[in-house]
Prior knowledge:
Blueprint lengths: L7 H29 L7 H18 L1 H12 L11 H17 L3 H26 L2
Amino acid sequence: PLGLYRGYLTTVLREIPFSLIQFPLWEYLKTQVRIKNNGSDPSPGESAVCGALAGGFSAAVTTPLDVAKTRIMLAPSHTPQASYGIFKTLKVVGGESGVKGLFAGVLPRTMWISIGGAVFFGVYEKVISIIEK
């Protein structure tokens, strides 16, 4: 039963820095668009592009944490790797594969989360614009 929750803490520890990067970056990018638009708020489409960029960047820089989470979750039960924490796992991956191993899957992760960021933030801004009318 505990195997079901293996990697949960690592998932939370991945999401915190991801969100701490993504949301302020999204707001910063929207501010830059607002300046470019002479003070007009970004359209939902522009906000979606900001969300895609913020999400993609956040995904790329937090990829090592995602690699550690995946390694912990997929480690066979009753092996030492199944009980490693995030820092030990990062150390092992770095020792085995170097920086390349820590950033394994960075391109598909970045692409997928960029799409998700565009949809999430674009829809969010569209709903806000509808509600405010």
